[in-house]
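User: I'm writing a tutorial on reading structure tokens. Could you give me a worked example: one chain, its sequence, then its tokens, then a sentence or two explaining what the tokens reveal?
Assistant: Sure. Here is the example chain.
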Amino acid sequence: MSRKLAGLVLGLGISALAFWWAIPADGLRSLPGHLASANSTYLLLAVVVATATFPIRAARWRLLLRAEDGTMPSWGAAWHATAIGFMANNILPFRLGEVIRGAAVSRLGPVAFPAALASIAVERVFDALSVVALFALALAAGGLPEGLTISGRPAGELVRLVGIAGLVAIAGAILAGVFPDRAARIIRALVPWKGFAEKLVALFDSFAHGLRVLHDPRRILLAVLGSLLLWSVNAWSFGLAFQAFGLPGGPAESVLLQTFVVFAVAVPSAPGYIGVIEYAMQLGGKVFGVPEAASLSAALTYHILTYIPITLLGAWSLSRTGLKLGELKGRE
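And here are its predicted structure tokens:
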């Protein structure tokens, strides 16, 4: 079995298992009742808010993209590439949308393909920082249930652990990005698996390349603020979906749901993260004592409704720009 086929089978298997785990004790019999009771206004607002994160992503990405002459690509190039990339993540395996996004902006920008991939590596660091920061703030603000434990540990203790681990990881990534040659030597010396070590080296090389465009403090500040805005808006969409079903959906609940989902989509899964999003949102609901059937109804509805707009927008961007998905996919 080829590595790609094995990866596809693994992703499909994890998605199927996650969805099976998400099925409540009474099966799916109670889902129609929950779905019928949903507030359509809140659902529509959840879809609008979730879809609004993609223009924010495109605007932030422009800050990290530069052509060879140092100019910033047009808004249209960043937007069409973003829409095409996230559409591809919904319909193709292996998260090929990230590569396709970089390939698309390199055609439309014009931005060199390696530079586009490097900017995506920097994006991931900003994303991790923002999600961890919002999660820690939600726990520290006391908006979560009294005596909350996660994986058997007090939430306060988890705040400290997450905060320390996040700061160490981010500091390590930045140091590795600033000194990629030293980082490469350390990684090759410490990681016993050669293939994995080389992938880490390549990741840090991309990150180091992407950091070169962030010499302007104003641009760094805008990228950080854009990241916090992006993930705050994204968290809000989760809360709105829960509120549509009469479930807790305040700021703390929204951030917790988002954190569960972000960790879940990091594992291999089917295209569009089928199953893992539903299971993650259901786990988040359990923290607040939400019945499994209710949280699954909210998760399924949210996932299906938010899947449609960006997929259609990506298809429209392909048509508008004349790009071909097969050609972009060939850059992997």
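What the tokens reveal: The first strand starts at residue 149 and ends at 150. Residues 136 and 163 are 7 Å apart (CA to CA).
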